[in-house]
Amino acid sequence: MTSDPARGLRRKARKRDREVLDAAVSVFFEHGYDAASVQDIADRLSMLKGSLYHYIETKEDLLHRIVLEVNEGSEAVERSVVAEPDLGPLQRLDLYVHRQLDYNLSHRKQIAIYFDDAARLSPARRRDVQYRLAENEKFVAALIHAAQDAGLVDPGLDPALYAQLVLGTMVWVNRTYRPGRGPGRDALIAACARYAVHGVAAVTQSRPAPGLAFDRNL
Amino acid sequence: MTSDPARGLRRKARKRDREVLDAAVSVFFEHGYDAASVQDIADRLSMLKGSLYHYIETKEDLLHRIVLEVNEGSEAVERSVVAEPDLGPLQRLDLYVHRQLDYNLSHRKQIAIYFDDAARLSPARRRDVQYRLAENEKFVAALIHAAQDAGLVDPGLDPALYAQLVLGTMVWVNRTYRPGRGPGRDALIAACARYAVHGVAAVTQSRPAPGLAFDRNL
Description:
The structure is a homodimer. The first copy, chain A, is built from nine helices and no strands. The radius of gyration of chain A is 21 Å and the shape is elongated. The C terminus of chain A is likely disordered. Chain A is mainly alpha-helical. The first copy, chain A, folds into two domains: 56 residues, Arc Repressor Mutant, subunit A (Orthogonal Bundle); 161 residues, Orthogonal Bundle (Tetracycline Repressor, domain 2), CATH 1.10.357.10. At the A-B interface, helix 5, helix 8 and helix 9 of A face helix 5, helix 8 and helix 9 of B.
């Protein structure tokens, strides 16, 4: 096998493919998808535009592959959290926020492109993205629902709405995180997970009036 | 006074001024600030571009006035929360989130323009915006700090970081809210305030290991 010349060629092609995708991520992130051109990506790779078209069909194909990688990365995080044995539902939610944010901050540019530019995809591809995002929301909502069943979360709250708040917290952290500035990455992830899980978890017995939700002794 | 003809003229000028600003908000929101032109705003008002320049100097002036109104609106919310007597620090935080979100959702387009486009302002104006945003973060951090002093919030957490999470939750709600879709406006505001205040408030005694932050019995 090691002497198979086709194997070395395939490995080289995969490596080039990865380089093309990484260059597209940097160019889309820096210029914005709309303003970025295939020429910019070729320049980044010191390639001729014609050679780059050996690897891709259109600029949108590159966007689509970036978005797909984000989908697949998030789905892998979900599977890893489901696979963990012996966790209560809130422990699982906590673990999910940790792992998902860890993934997001390691793919900060891809996540930004995902949220800013997935709407630029063709309708069929966009529908697929929306479906997978809805599945992601359902995953978080199901964790919250399981915590309600276990008596750990107020049964009166809407799991779908709180799932949105948890995911929104993560998107915001991703947007504001700048490596080397502010709190360290681990402190940020821990604070976000604590905030999200406690935000969901607290069980309130009475329905407080809007605007004055807390007992005087709080 | 009522017979003062200058008074009627001033009122008419103020009304026109308001219409110009409202048209700029709609045009910037729909087209994006960069793509929007003074001509678009004139068209929206059925005015000639030359007549519109009677009211403004540049497109950036309009952006600046929109951003200033957001600053002033937020500062008025803060003052109203400070003026409320006899509230504990977490009640005050809860009231702040309610009132600020209520303001934001009533000025959804202006808030979106503020976050998307304030960076387009000239350096001196941008510095003023950044200063006022930092003051807003300090206001929320001070509420959290007061809650720590009152023993209602874990003294180990960083008030500035949690202030960012609270403000981020509000920005996210503002971005995803679509009138007439999803949960009602009041339900959304109540959920967001509950999530944010409980996210900050929960007192944890031990420092849990990252990724497994909860006792098995949670």
